[in-house]
Amino acid sequence: MRYLTVALAKGRLAELSVEIFLALGYDCSQILEKTRKLIFTDEEHKVRFLLVKAGDVPTYVEYGAADLGIVGRDTLLEDGRNVYEMLDLKFGACKMCVCGPPDMKEKLHSTSHLRVASKYPNIAREHFLREMASDVEIIKLSGSVELAPLTGLSEVIVDIVESGKTLRENGLEVLEEICPLSARLIVNRVSAKMERERIRGIVTAIRKQVGNE
Ligand code: PRP
After folding, report:
1. Taking the model in full, what pTM does it have?
2. Which residue owns the Cα nearest ligand 1 atom 2?
3. 177: exposed, middle or buried (C-beta count within 10 Å: 0-12, 13-18, 19+)?
4. What is the pLDDT of residues 70-119, one digit of tens each?
5. Mean pLDDT (whole number) for 2-13
6. Distance between CA 121 and CA 186 in Å, rounded?
């Protein structure tokens, strides 16, 4: 039997992703031990787990370096990778929003040249193309996006809001909601056919576990 490879996202989703596979009886608790190891093998079940940057999970799965992956819907929407989205895992629930200082709420649709900073330039561009005709400039950042409106780099941001704490602590608020987000189980298109039975078994077990029947 060949090894089935699962790409898990480092960071926020890591713990809950590992818990899903632990509950299925896979030996992957080592992942939570916070070592520098990036690959973990369950010899009994012939499953390998890769710990990768969230944004790289769909890349590993699209190219077949991983058969399955768990990643946020934000990453899938931003990158538009060619993978099967099999299941909404429900955890990691948050929202993609346009955020900024409170006084931008009424000006959002009337500012002639609106600068939008985001880690998600494609999602931001698509939203503003859909929502308004005015001139919008998207500025790509890699993190700490809330700094952009505070420093004059942009008027607003497009970012993930989970608890809202980061916004509150920086004097910003949600101006518009774009879409809900949560963790998704994705599958490589070829693996879905070649490893149909094993993958179907895993998907069915996870579906039961997350109450998504
Ligand atoms: C994300 C996001 C917000 C924050 C939202 O950033 O970009 O900054 O979390 O969460 P909250 O609503 O619960 O405060 P992340 O922590 O991934 O770090 P980053 O800014 O370095 O990307």
Report:
1. 0.92
2. 160
3. exposed
4. 999 999 999 999 999 999 999 999 999 999 999 999 988 888 899 999 99
5. 94
6. 22
